[in-house]
Design brief:
23 strands; 3 domains; OB fold (Dihydrolipoamide Acetyltransferase, E2P); BirA Bifunctional Protein, domain 2; alpha+beta; five-stranded mixed beta barrel; eight-stranded mixed sheet; Gyrase A, domain 2; homodimer; 15 helices
């Protein structure tokens, strides 16, 4: 046994006990005649003390210790003369009687402290040192706590964790598959699952009734934004349920996880339709930790000769505004920044109209020429404008206006710190459309995936007006992030086939790729539905991280590389020969 | 809500309640005027009854139901006139007032009962129907229960579950890697982990202290015996521990899992050295549910002119025997079968000498010419022979004799039903050698893997007599199966490098493949050790299965194919172009 106690547990009540600790040297403070060492392990930090008088050899050994040396010490727990109330063990120290160096350490390439001096690339290369930093270690512990709470809840509700295979068949679920060449069947490939979607549906056909799995999923995508080629889902499915049953279970689970992890008691989740989310917040995953709704003005604008608004309305476009509370004093430069923000190419507005409701009661606008003060106040009224507020108005194609004002409200929230730290907004978005039209190709695509059930009330429009058909699809949104996506699934063979057809799959393709699933639906498939949580993102939100890289032990860098292991890498040509594949250069 | 109760929960105390159930039609028994239906879901089976008089339309609908139809029924719980004590719900039935067909079913390709009429290939193709059979469903539930109990125990001991990546670097750990071509880095490959061995050791360097993970591992091996290309381990690692600490934790965990899963209280585990296991049982994973030890006779054979034994001893070979209790009456044919068994090419004995201690007191032997009755009795004494026993003796190269007699004792146990159903034998095997010599190539290989720590007492022989060096390696054996393998690891950079050298790796190879690990050891690696459990095999043993295919939801067939999904499969040539690889035909 290397230790009798950990570095996090000793208190004044342990005084006079003789204990053995093991851990890493955080710092050695040589006070001349006296040495203090902070000893660190996963559980905390404990101060050691040595005295030149009592044992000179021991004292000299202690002086020789460097940062991150691994040592074992035995000594007596004594009360500190100067206590440190910031440390859990700050009331005591260990008066060292015995010291063994278990392993030496070279000087680490960056400091092992919450505020490290290492850049992200360096820290990813030495991830095993980065994890020694208390913050990252705590994230991994919190992640484990959260997943434990998920399992605890689901187990109590009769869900069964079932493992599904990772060497499966390549099926198009929206993203690109990672492929695994088969050695035994030259020319054939397994695929790594983008999700266990089909397999969990087959578990419902198999009668498993309630399934979950904490499972790795794989998508070979270009690294736009905050993505990882492998990520973790909590994947769930239930039989004999409608949307309400799914909501009840998983709302309950999320509340349980919060309570167990950070003690927060979440209120009941509201439900927002997809249409309302887009209309009022310009996003299907709005952040509702602050208000600032988009207000549509087409029907309420005062009469004026202002051509921009008039033309927009005539063309069937949208005139809409948000109220930037308390921003009336924005300078010309600040307003220009907001205009540049909405003019960015992925938003594409051509400009913003502003109305300032100044603190002195005056009202100023960039369109004073076209609207008198009464009219501006009338517009302000529609947005609940008070003294000090700034109204920002856009008038273009509805989708552009909504997206831009939606982004703008987030940008304002950031600039104005509208979001109080520690606040949570968690709710459902419902009634997504089943299909959407690709604006470039004109093709009909699925919004979520091809297995979502159409809303029964809308089946009548399936052929005549497919874009009008709502799906029984739902998302859970947490602080402006989609944290869950799910749906009631199709369980009828004919309907599933119709949806595949509508999505443009040939019957041959359907049979080749989904034949086994459609076949399964012949033999008594129950009504079923479910969802999947993005665990990495949820952990990121719970732990205040900035990217999902902060949520995992060994993430990939943005180009898909593991900087620590240096993977992917060249392999022995013999391995490729065995697999019957060759590398060909891409253009 | 599709149901108010499941098919497994109604009892007499529910009589007169109106309930709604949903499930699969197991069987429709049409008694003319009365129909009984067995309705099945994951939780059990409930009998429904319908009566032609009360509702003719309903009655006719019920008559039309086929096997595996999915239905929903509402009705009153009534006491049965003829109760079925074999069914948990056998005291009641539901008098159906409402029936909805949720989905029809074609006749399934085999019967959905514990004794199915479908062959294994057919059942694997329709695995979603096979899982409806109560036995296979129960296996999956037991598997989940066992894994839950493992987590429960480890969580209570401060272990943290950490997920390690599955797209890693190809490192030689003994088996062949599955490779994943990188699209973003043409010509490079990820590998799927054979185990998270190096990553968990890095988590110890990272200070995580106690780690576990229920994790998929991948080996691209030819399908000898009962293997799967992907399988599940409980992977564990601890810092600041010696063997005893590991034993204490995981012996405790196994006892906890048994108690929680099947209520069995296991006694404390014995420890058997590798040398004794091989000497007495001819195997490093002996089945100790029965005795039948191998007895070495080289030093105790009575003097005789029998050339086989004399030559064997002169050549330094081994003469050894087992006592087949109660088998003295074996016929010539049975004895011939045993001889053929040990002559099989992978055992390679040239024959067996037998001595029968007949019930009538006589002693007969196949070597009566060379040994008188007194001498035969003397041999019998060494083996504790009594009336009715059969002694079987082999005399050849020690390794062959041990392997053959070890296999023979298992074969006899099967023939003679020596193993009482429901008995458990779980123990540790310790003191494995660090290296072994490949008999064909003469190369020094590792016995477990290159990260096992040599026994400190034996380091002195590392260069002079490496085969003499014991490793701090251990296995856990359960009913003759290796269920856990583990070791105290090397945590010193120099020693790890020495081991790699001894194994014949060039320094260039070491740096390329293990550089990141050796590098990590520069910065304060703690002493650490751990183990990994084979979950599939443990589940197989707990549930009385014959192969690990029985332990998983969607196993591969023996050629690595998923018969249900039909994977691996050809992929779109576009996918290969994107990956920058081409298929080349193997010879």
């Amino acid at each position: 046994m290397y230790r009798t106690k950990t570095c996090g547990e000793l208190r004044l009540s342990n005084a006079n006990e003789t204990v053995t600790l093991a851990g890493w040297v955080q710092i050695v403070r040589d006070m001349g005649h006296l040495i203090f060492i902070d000893l660190r392990d996963r559980y905390g930090m404990t101060q050691l003390s040595l005295n030149a008088d009592s044992d000179a050899a021991l004292y000299n050994m202690a002086r020789s210790l460097g940062r991150e040396y691994v040592i074992q010490v035995t000594g007596k727990v004594i009360e500190r003369t100067s206590k440190n109330s910031e440390m859990a063990t700050g009331d005591i120290e260990i008066f060292v009687e015995n010291l063994t160096i278990l392993n030496e350490a070279e000087t680490p390439p960056f400091t092992i402290e919450n505020k490290s001096d290492g850049g992200e690339e360096l820290r990813m290369k030495y991830r095993y040192l980065d994890i020694r930093r208390p913050h990252l270690k705590d994230v991994l512990v919190t992640r484990a706590t959260m997943i434990r709470a998920m399992r605890e809840y689901l187990d109590s509700k009769n869900f069964i964790e079932v493992e599904t295979p990772n060497l499966i068949k390549s099926t198009p679920e929206g993203a690109r598959d990672f492929l695994v060449p088969s050695r035994m069947q030259n020319g054939s490939f397994y695929a790594l699952p983008q999700s266990p979607q089909i397999l969990k549906q087959l578990l419902m056909v198999a009668g498993m009734d309630r399934y979950y799995q904490v499972v790795k999923c794989y998508r070979d995508e270009d690294f736009r934004g905050d993505r990882q080629p492998e990520f973790t889902q909590l994947d769930c499915e239930m039989s004999f349920v409608n949307q309400e049953d799914v909501f009840e279970n998983f709302e309950g689970m999320v509340k349980h996880v919060f309570k167990k992890t950070n003690g927060v008691e979440l209120p009941d989740f509201i439900r927002l339709t997809f249409a309302d989310a887009v209309k009022y917040y310009g996003s299907d995953k709005p952040d509702l930790r602050f208000d600032c709704k988009i207000v549509e003005l087409n029907d309420s604008l005062p009469k004026s000769e202002f051509p921009v608004f008039n033309n927009a309305i005539a063309a069937g476009n949208l005139v809409a505004a948000i109220n930037a509370k308390g921003c009336a004093a924005y300078s010309r430069k600040q307003l220009d920044e907001l205009t540049e923000f909405v003019k960015a190419s992925h938003r594409g507005l051509s400009g913003l109209v502003n109305i300032k409701f100044n603190e002195d009661g005056t009202v100023k606008s960039s369109v004073d020429k076209f609207y008198n003060e009464e009219q501006l106040k009338e517009i302000g009224k529609a947005l609940g404008a008070e003294k000090g507020d700034l109204i920002l108005i856009a008038a273009e194609k509805a989708s552009k206006v909504r997206k831009s004002l939606g982004d703008l409200r987030l940008e304002l929230a950031k600039r104005e710190s509208w979001i109080k730290p520690g606040t949570w907004s968690v709710f459902w978005v419902v009634d997504f459309p089943l299909f959407e039209k690709d604006e470039e190709t004109g093709e009909t695509n699925f919004v979520h995936h091809p297995f979502c059930s159409p809303h029964p009330d809308d089946l009548q429009y399936f052929d005549s007006d497919p874009l009008r058909v709502r799906a029984q699809t739902y998302d859970m949104v947490m602080n402006g992030n989609e944290i869950l996506s799910g749906s009631i699934r199709i369980h009828q063979r004919e309907l599933q086939n119709r949806v595949f057809n509508k999505l443009g799959f040939s019957q041959e393709d359907i049979d080749h790729k989904f034949g086994f699933m459609l076949n399964a639906f012949r033999y008594g498939a129950p009504p079923h539905g479910g969802c999947a949580f993005g665990i990495d993102r949820w952990v990121m939100l719970m732990t205040g991280g900035e990217t999902i890289r902060d949520s995992m032990a060994f993430p990939k860098a943005s180009n898909g590389r593991d900087l620590m292991m240096d993977a992917p890498a060249l392999v022995d040509p013999k391995q490729l020969t065995e697999l019957g594949i060759a590398v060909v250069n891409k253009d």
